[in-house]
Task: inverse folding
């Protein structure tokens, strides 16, 4: 499958105030799932790096090591816009300085996005988005497929 | 490691934060999607809303396993559920509960008209694991509702009269659950409509107002005999709108309607069927202008209370029937004084007007018409038994609801007239008091 090159607009969306959820599965087709705390797209837009917490993503990380397959959903709560990117060359990488900066910026921006919805208190969001730097792990992949998942008639359409 | 079951994580299933569903295709490609709603079924089963045919659906049909993340919006605690897909329901109680709840979620997220429940996907919960992380203290610590249920249960068990049972139930909801707005509706004789016999917390009581089966959360709860709870206002389940629409469709008959008392913006609504055995007797309904006012625990508590109400309603009706006395002889009446009032009776729908004001219709209208005509013959003491035996009242042979109808009529008279009233004089008997001269006029239907 040919690589999906993200548009600049999609890059801005994925790096913006969105919820990021990651899925993988093992060879027996058992799926795993974890929240991600940030996303960074390479300057040439060919590779996406997301950051998860090792303590929360033990099975997911094992699955990615075993299969290299990944699916990531990006969803913006205030607009319900949602996309999914898939990859089959995912690998686990050490966290770089720019990932740390991205995680800090992302959790702040996403908290600000959620606050006006009044769904969660600030304390609950602080708990949900709380992390320690040592726990962060990066996963990078080249998107090989992408779909719109915004609810409605266009849901499931391939990103072109 | 703590083992959780679904009972432990119900705050995550209120539909505030969507659930995140990971599945895997038959050829090993993972997929990530959001589910608007995860519905509690029991400690070991949940249902996910199926709205669109998508990759998740394709995957679970091919390989019936999913891993789902849910989050408690109060504490930020997150749980991972391992699920085994069993089947999909496209009708019935679970489906109806989810359909109404989804309408509320859709309205909250600007997705009205987009979200449409196609099915309730039922899953067995194989395991629940708490995702490591911090957990905030909930702003409102979950209250143990058992003492409140116990207190209400004790109060209800002490009541010996049906009308008082209705009022006590609603008073108790206010006192022990801080529920400001509530109503009790009883199913009519032919099982097509519910009429309000008591209410709490409204400017006008709305006693006598009617809701059709299937209309709004009350009508859906009655039609499917299942509790219906909504946490966000959805216009398609808002009563004032539904009732106004009915009034428009009814045209000239709209004047013979008692306005439904509901609040203007009911963000939270909870309707619980009142049953006795398999028979539906009515609906207990609460609403609040505040979103997410009622949770799974409130629903549990009210379901337990509604079951006791159903048994008590049935028991009190049986007592009344058994203890009814034989018809009373003619009795002396108080002299009616003052200006003559015109009582008009429209036979077409048995509606009654006092001067120009609508009073009541249907069975209660027929009862009233019988009372005023017999009163003109010099009677004021009546028994439930003679009403029950009167073929003109068209009461069914069994389960006639007569007591509830009399309560409704007595309450309407109390609200609408200062010279007509029904006084209970004993079990199964009452006095019809008339303090102004009446002129009766029947309009053939």
Result:
């Amino acid at each position: 499958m040919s690589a999906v090159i993200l548009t600049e607009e999609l890059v801005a969306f994925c790096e913006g105030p969105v919820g990021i959820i990651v899925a993988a599965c093992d060879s027996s087709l058992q799926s795993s799932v974890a929240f991600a705390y940030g996303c960074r797209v390479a300057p040439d837009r060919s590779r996406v790096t997301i950051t998860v917490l090792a303590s929360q993503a033990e099975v997911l990380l094992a699955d990615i090591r075993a299969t290299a397959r990944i699916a990531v959903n990006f969803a913006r709560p205030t607009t319900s816009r949602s996309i999914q990117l898939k990859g089959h060359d995912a690998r686990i990488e050490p966290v770089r300085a720019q990932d740390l900066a991205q995680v800090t910026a992302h959790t702040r921006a996403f908290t600000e996005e959620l606050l006006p919805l009044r769904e969660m208190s600030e304390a609950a969001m602080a708990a949900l988005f709380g992390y320690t730097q040592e726990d962060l792990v990066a996963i990078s992949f080249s998107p090989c497929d992408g779909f719109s998942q915004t609810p409605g008639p266009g849901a499931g359409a391939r990103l072109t | 490691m703590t083992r959780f079951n679904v009972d432990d994580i119900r705050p995550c299933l209120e539909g505030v934060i969507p659930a995140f569903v990971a599945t895997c295709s038959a050829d090993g490609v993972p997929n990530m999607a959001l589910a608007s709603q995860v519905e509690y079924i029991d400690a070991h089963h949940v249902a996910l809303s199926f709205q669109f045919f998508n990759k998740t659906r394709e995957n679970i049909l091919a390989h019936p396993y999913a891993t789902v993340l849910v989050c408690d919006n109060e504490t930020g605690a997150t749980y991972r559920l391992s699920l085994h897909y069993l089947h999909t329901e496209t009708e019935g109680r679970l489906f109806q509960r989810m359909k109404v709840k989804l309408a509320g979620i859709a309205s909250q997220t600007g997705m009205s008209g987009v979200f449409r429940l196609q099915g309730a996907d039922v899953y067995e919960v194989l395991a629940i694991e708490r995702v490591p992380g911090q957990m905030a203290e909930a702003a409102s610590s979950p209250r143990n509702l058992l003492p409140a249920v116990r207190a209400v249960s004790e109060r209800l068990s002490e009541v010996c009269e049906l009308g008082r049972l209705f009022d006590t139930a609603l008073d108790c909801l206010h006192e022990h659950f801080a529920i400001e707005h509530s109503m009790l509706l009883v199913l009519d004789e032919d099982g097509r409509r519910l009429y309000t016999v008591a209410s709490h917390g409204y400017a006008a009581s709305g006693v006598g107002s009617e809701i059709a089966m299937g209309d709004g959360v009350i009508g859906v709860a009655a039609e499917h005999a299942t509790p219906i709870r909504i946490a966000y206002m959805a216009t398609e389940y808002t009563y004032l709108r539904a009732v106004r629409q009915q009034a428009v469709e009814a045209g000239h008959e709209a004047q013979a309607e008692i306005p439904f008392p509901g609040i203007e913006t009911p963000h939270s609504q909870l309707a619980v069927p009142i049953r006795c055995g398999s028979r539906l007797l009515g609906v207990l309904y609460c609403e609040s202008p505040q979103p997410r006012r009622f949770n799974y625990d409130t629903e549990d508590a009210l379901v337990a209370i509604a079951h006791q109400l159903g048994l008590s309603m049935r028991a009190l009706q049986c007592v009344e029937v058994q203890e009814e006395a034989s018809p009373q002889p003619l009795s002396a009446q108080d002299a009616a004084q003052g200006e003559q009032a015109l009582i008009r009776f429209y036979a077409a729908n048995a509606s009654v007007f006092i001067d120009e004001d609508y009073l009541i219709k249907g069975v209660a209208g027929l009862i009233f018409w019988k009372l005023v005509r017999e009163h003109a013959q010099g009677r004021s003491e009546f028994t439930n038994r003679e009403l029950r035996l009167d073929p003109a009242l068209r009461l069914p042979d069994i389960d006639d609801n007569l007591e509830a109808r009399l309560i409704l009529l007595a309450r309407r008279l109390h609200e609408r007239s200062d010279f007509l009233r029904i006084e209970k004089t004993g079990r199964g008997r009452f006095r019809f008091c008339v303090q102004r001269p009446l002129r009766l006029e029947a309009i053939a239907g």
Observations:
- The radius of gyration of chain B is 26 Å.
- Chain B has a mean pLDDT of 89.
